[in-house]
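QA checklist item 7 of 12: single-chain prediction sanity check.
[x] sequence parsed
[x] length recorded as 67
[x] structure emitted
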Amino acid sequence: MWRYREVIPVVDPANIVTLGEGHTPLHSQGLGKHLGMKSLLIKDEGVNPTGSFKARGLSAAVSRLLS
């Protein structure tokens, strides 16, 4: 997620706190068709180091607090 740091409100890059969250996969294995949609993409946030979708927000929040 820190490849987008220019739009994340962290002043000093030295204060970035990260466990390597982000770059989680997108899945589209026919679920959209089963639900009557043309396509449906599901973001698997469970593969973050913490196993949670909260990892991105907490990384940004803690980094901002340290700035």
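[x] summary fact logged: The two ends are 17 Å apart (CA to CA).
[ ] second reviewer sign-off
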